[in-house]
Amino acid sequence: MFNNLMPKRLTFFWAFFAGTITFGESTTNRTLLRVFHRGVPLDIRHIPKMMTQTLAASDGMMESLSQDDHDCERCFAQDDMVYDLKAIGIQIVDSKCPVGHKQILNYLRKAKNMLSIDFDCEPDSRVTLHPTLAADMATCTGGNSVLGTNDPGSSCQPNLELIHLGAAWEAARSAGRKLKDVVLAISDTGVDMTHPDLVNQFWRNPADNSIGYNFITNSIDVTDRHSHGTHCAGNAAAQTNNNIGIAGVANIDGSVPSVKLMILKMLDDTGGGYTSDIARAINFAVENGAAFSSHSYRWFDDNEIMRAAFRNAAAAGHMAVTAAGNEMANLDGWPTFPCTYAIEIPSMLCVAATTSDPTEDVTMAPFSSAGSATKVAAPGVDVYSTFPGGSYSYMSGTSMSTPTTAGVAALLGTLGLESQEIADTLIKSRTDGLPNWRGVSDIGMIDAFKAVQAALGSPATRLRKNIQSSSR
């Protein structure tokens, strides 16, 4: 019965997905942690001195340190053995350290008893892409009169028609506002750095002119040898009205992008990665001024350190948009992460997928997961976007719904809204309900036009506009 409900391209998707579920596993020796002393963050490198002083003052009344404890302390004292992710309040002990998570955890437990510290300490864990439909090429010509675009591939983008993106662009242009420049980070497998529909859309690091960072190789080469990241990047913000390729979501004016893409390669060429590199990517995004980020990957085991990473990024004004997943699950019974963190982080969104055909009743896509965390959804079936080698392709999944929503969020950012306002606006302007088989009632598809209308009428954006005008 399920296959009868699925679009033609998705029948293969299900067979592909069924063989690729990968649960969290730790295969690096990195340890992620955060330590507090009397409620104040504490550098783990300071603990050995505190322990030595406390032991000396105890007159032998406290348990002495073990060999593993001394190995931990020697590790912490070495240069380049502990990474400081200051923007999100996390530290990572490098895999070169001769002790692993178990030894560090035991050391911190002993320190807790001696020093009354509090801490979270997690092993590095494996993450994977949400599986998507394998590439399917198409020939698209003629532009799209509904969107008002001359990009030939936009004729194959009914998904953007569904969210009324053309009307949203027109409303924003007609308002005549000076747009704010914002940066949207794509945390994924990298990007085709020379793709003609993307090459003008990249953020540039003022330090070295790079367009992001590769956390797999610790380099600035973010070349996508998978395809997923390139597809997500184009979906979010490919150049629009340039007479080639497709239309991206985020930019109101195709010739002068106000939304630039920061490319954070934290998934390898197989689509796999680690929570430590996710944390490093989030930290990089916040430190380098990205107001938004798109995350189309998942893991299945809760992780207090990663919860803190997303929570602290949100506290710094950063808005993360994440994918619900393609497991056909009710997430309240089978949570995936980071999506589920959206329940407790109000400015964070987790996005489900809808069907993409404007000529049919819109429902939740058959593969899409959903739950209390998913207040919004976006088209995720047969989404046409950029592909490595300067080409274009269809893909399906909540991986596609997520950069669409992140693109609309960034568009609202150019109008002056900020993270919490944007999340609230997208939820309030969504469609009224979305038929689904997950038993989820508090969900609707995003409506870019209504969201822009709300943004243009927002007291907060009017106030900021008046302040900017009076300061000129």
TrEMBL record:
Swiss-Prot/TrEMBL catalytic activity: Hydrolysis of proteins with broad specificity for peptide bonds, and a preference for a large uncharged residue in P1. Hydrolyzes peptide amides
Enzyme Commission numbers on file: 3.4.21.62
Enzyme class: hydrolase
GO MF annotation list: serine-type endopeptidase activity
Listed GO biological process terms: proteolysis
Coiled coil: none
Annotated active site: 188 (charge relay system), 228 (charge relay system), 399 (charge relay system)
Keywords: Hydrolase, Protease, Serine protease, Zymogen
Record Gene3D superfamilies: Peptidase S8/S53 domain
Peptidase S8/S53 domain residues: 180-430
Keyword Protease recorded: yes
PANTHER family: CELL WALL-ASSOCIATED PROTEASE, SUBTILISIN-RELATED
Family: Belongs to the peptidase S8 family.
Protein name from the UniProt record: subtilisin
Organism: Perkinsus marinus (strain ATCC 50983 / TXsc)
